[in-house]
Structure formats: C-alpha cells, structure tokens
Amino acid sequence: QLELVESGGGLVQPGGSLRLSCAASGFTLERYAIGWLRQAPGKEREVVSCISNSGGNTKYLDSVKGRFTISRDNAKNTVYLQMNNLKPEDTAVYHCAKAPHCGQGYDFWGQGTQVTVSS
Asked: Which of 42, 82, 86, 102 has CB 3.0 to 4.6 Å from 69, enough for a Cys bridge?
C-alpha cells in the first residue's frame, strides 16, 4: 500500500524555522521525484520545491529561494523540507507528492501537514 506521510508542521513565529519530513512506504522512493506543494485557503495550490530521484537536481518557487532547502535520504525513504526565515505568507497545508520527474504530474499525495506562521 502506497503511503506518503508528512510531519513537522506547526505554529511558528515569523523568522522561525521548521523542518518537514515526508516518509514514504509501499514503493521504491529512489525511482521518483518528490515535490512539496502547498495550498492556503482561497489560494491556488503551488509547487514549493521538487527534488529529482537521485537528489542531484532541485527546484524552488521563487518566493522561497534562499529560505527553503529540499533534501532526501533514499536509504531512509524520507524527503525533507527545511524552512527558514518563515513568513506569514508561507502559511498553508504542505503536501508531499511523487512524480516520475520534477515538472511532470504528481500522481500520489500525502495528507498534508499544517504550517502556520504568525506572531
């Protein structure tokens, strides 16, 4: 059974940090690119970051460049999103999802973890 389980969300003050984790099971993680996507109430879903299956290529939304870092540990079947200098506009539900390659369609999603940035 395929599973992607996100964790690490929470409430943080502006300027704070969080590290999200995406634990995969039921499939071979190293065969897939993994993306982090977010959706805030009333806003379009957006792809925050993506990492290739090997980890050699990464992509970021312009608004998070220099603040967020995506990484993966295929041996642990886990992908991470380190988020620093968080801003209120980063508030959203964050999902991880798998795709054949970054930029292609995401075909399986996790349930998501809430990130709230507020003072």
From this structure: 82
